[in-house]
TrEMBL record:
Residues 4-62 form the Tudor domain. The keyword Nucleus applies. Its main location: cytoplasm. GO terms for molecular function: Delta14-sterol reductase activity; DNA binding. One of its GO terms (biological process) is cholesterol biosynthetic process. It is a multi-pass membrane protein. SUPFAM superfamilies: Tudor/PWWP/MBT. The chain crosses the membrane at residues 212-230, 250-273, 294-313, 325-344, 455-475, 481-500, 521-542, 562-581. Pathway: Steroid biosynthesis; cholesterol biosynthesis. It catalyses: 4,4-dimethyl-5alpha-cholesta-8,24-dien-3beta-ol + NADP(+) = 4,4-dimethyl-5alpha-cholesta-8,14,24-trien-3beta-ol + NADPH + H(+); 5alpha-cholest-8,14-dien-3beta-ol + NADPH + H(+) = 5alpha-cholest-8-en-3beta-ol + NADP(+); 4,4-dimethyl-8,14-cholestadien-3beta-ol + NADPH + H(+) = 4,4-dimethyl-5alpha-cholest-8-en-3beta-ol + NADP(+). This is Delta(14)-sterol reductase LBR. It comes from Sinosuthora webbiana. Residues 53-112 are annotated as: Disordered.
Amino acid sequence: MPSRKFADGEVVMGRWPGSVLYYEVQVTSYDDVAHLYTVKYKDGTELALKESDIRSQSSFKQRKSQSSSSSPSRRSSSRSRSRSRSPGRPARGRRRSASQSREHKDDKKKTIQETSLALPVLLLFKPSENNTKRYNGEPESTEKNDTSCIILEQKLKPDLEVKRVLEQYSLRSRKDDKKKEEIYSEKKTFVAVKPIEKVPTKTKELEFGGRIGTFMMIFLLPATVLYLLLMCKQDDPSLLNFPPLPALESLWDGKAFGIFVLWFLLQALFYLLPIGKVVEGLPLSNGRRLQYRINGFYAFILTAAAVGVLLYFEFELHYLYDHFMQFAVAAAAFALALSIYLYVRSLKAPEEELAPGGNSGYFIYDFFIGHELNPRIGSFDLKYFCELRPGLIGWVVINLAMLLAEMKIHNLSVPSLSMILVNSFQLLYVVDALWNEEAVLTTMDITHDGFGFMLAFGDLVWVPFVYSLQAFYLVGHPTTITWPIAAAITVLNCVGYYIFRSANSQKNNFRRNPADPKLANLKFIPTATGKGLLVTGWWGFVRHPNYLGDIIMALAWSLPCGFNHILPYFYVIYFVCLLVHREARDEHHCKQKYGLAWERYCQRVPYRIFPYIY
């Protein structure tokens, strides 16, 4: 095994990815498996570099001294050659007077050339200057309406044009031309730096309580779902009235498991249909972009048609309500089996396809978080499919089943107003997610988290069986609300939805095409990664306005259930805790990724989710 060359804490010169520029960095750690150094720039940005991209500071000083010492020798040799001129040459003074005007012009051209080349040379030996700061998240102006690369290119364009004209009449040697081309390439690199590509390394900072916390959550999550569903079945679902545990054999139903597997396969069939457009996701660590077929809304329409056919043939959909617990257990068993398969197949996955947060080397932690980032069977993306299809569409079908069960149990000709509100609000949320399916490609679940037990259980069990808790509660605990109260709750839900949708649209459109003329009014802070941090619109109001809209909608979904019990408000309480925790994760990752630019963004937008509160 090759020994490492640089020690932890050593200050060296690191090459900026995608360029030939070197900056002063500090070595923080070394990965023995990937043979990569983790280095930290002055602005706090951390990158993984190969040993070939790192040089000692002494080598730069030595190279600079050698270049300066070589110049006098060249000048002396040129003077010695000029003394032994041929007899046919005119005298030096007469020759100079004859060409004085031409040499004066040549001197002016040379001055222009040297001036045009001065910027990249300064960048090479003085990484702390203002131009370097632009790459480390320190723009000359904090807010911009256009990319700094375009502005800089316009500034350098006249110099480059003069340089090209002079090159046509240059009499320098090829060696000098080669050196000039290298400097010119540095200049081009400075104008447009390629995006930073990170090679996945071992996960060092463990989340969710590390190995012990994730081990406990593997058992705590299914137990929580079981507890909530048992509480809803009771006449008095108060917190102090703990439900009796059912017999284990009553929790398993082979028919329910078969129906769930059939449902999963039906959604997979809809996913594979060649309808809908195909788009590319965000670049991976190796620069590759995966393709995704956007047809979730079509799958929802086909599912609605299939449910309509079942109702036409008088299929009793409230069977879901009668065996709701058994369906939840079947979904949990399926999610566990899927998680085991995902972890086993991830052991053979290439290093570059592993998730940044699920590559710790600890079995329990990687099993929970997800070891592989984008597990696929051919073109079938398992994580992307489970993110929106079986659980999210299943949530709507379960709500419809609860509505029909309420009408049957209470002998109603029409559903209650509370049930209509809950179904309508949550149907709008699901349809919006499927209509804007492409936006999920920029979320943390797709770009950062692996596909393991956390997402498999969350997508297939938690979403359909916990998010439908309000509808399940209303079947056994009917609540009557007046029309004015219903109107007020509707307005609250619409406000939350407007904030949620408009904030997400701003973010997604800006990520896809920052140069879109429709976004010309948005200001942003440029970062070292080439991306921008919005500081106007909803993203200048709070750092996560989409979370704020989500929480307002969650409250509107719970209010139709009244205030007799806190159980239907579990969703909004859980959602606040979830989004606060996710915001903390986002904060940590963005601080590492964007460095000083993120600190400036936090100064510009001080509130995280709730304005003037948090």
